[in-house]
Structures are given as C-alpha cells and as structure tokens.
Amino acid sequence: MLRDRGRLREVGGFAVVGLAAYAADLAVFLWLRGPLDLGPVAAKTASFLAGCTVAYLGNALGTYRRRTVGLREYAVFFAVNLAGAAVQLLCLAASHYGLGLTSARADTVSGLGVGMVLATCLRFWGTRTLVFATGTDPTGTDPATEEAEEEARTSWTG
Asked: Which residues of 124-135 are buried (b: 16+ CB within 10 A; e: fewer)?
C-alpha cells in the first residue's frame, strides 16, 4: 500500500511538472513569435530549452527532491527530452509520409496524440531511471524505506 501511494505521488508529481513545463514552452514560444517576431525554429528551440529547464527544476526540487541534482543530471534529462521529441516526430513522420495520412487531424492524432503518449512514457522512464535513479538519495538512503520506518514508528494515536 505504501509503495502504491509513493508511485502515485511520483506519477502525479511528474504530471504536474510536465504541465508546468508545457505551459512554459508554450508561453515562451508565443512571446518569441509574437512581440519579439523571432523565427519559428529559433523560437521553438528557445521555448524547448525553457520547457526542459522548468521540467528539470520541477522534478529535481519537487517530484524527486531527495535525489542528486546537478549539471550531469540536467544533461541526461535534456537528452531524454530530446529522445521524447524524436519519438513524437517519428510518429508524425510515419503517419504522414509512411502511411499517407496527410490531413491536419491525422497529423494531430499521430504527433500530439500517439506521439505525445509514447514520448511521455519514454520521458517518465528516462527521468526516473537515468536522471533521478530511484532508490537512493545523495546520502545513500532509500526514501521509501525511510518513509515506511517513520510510519512504523508513529502510532495512529500520535
């Protein structure tokens, strides 16, 4: 039961951070494309970096707050996010060019539907196993074990 609650908290935290990162990505892109009149590729590159940074900081300071945080983790996190972006592009390309499904709706379903789901699964796996390896924090303790021990020490009467 305790493990299920911990996993649910992890997935929920990852989702909330992901939504915040998406909002940052979208806001920066719209700001750069609108008032600053930056080109679409440069604007998307900058907004992707902003979204990655928000996601990394949110996960490092929130979802995986007991894990090691540093430049190496950010670099791996960035690589995991690039892989996720590649999955989305591959889904779009396979549907559009490989299957010949060229309507705007088909592109949306393949790139933002199927591609986003697969990319999110990849990002979640990569974030928890490659970036913030679950199991130990920087001090070498297991957070799940610590939480279980704390609950065992505390009676229901307080």
From this structure: bebbbeebbebe
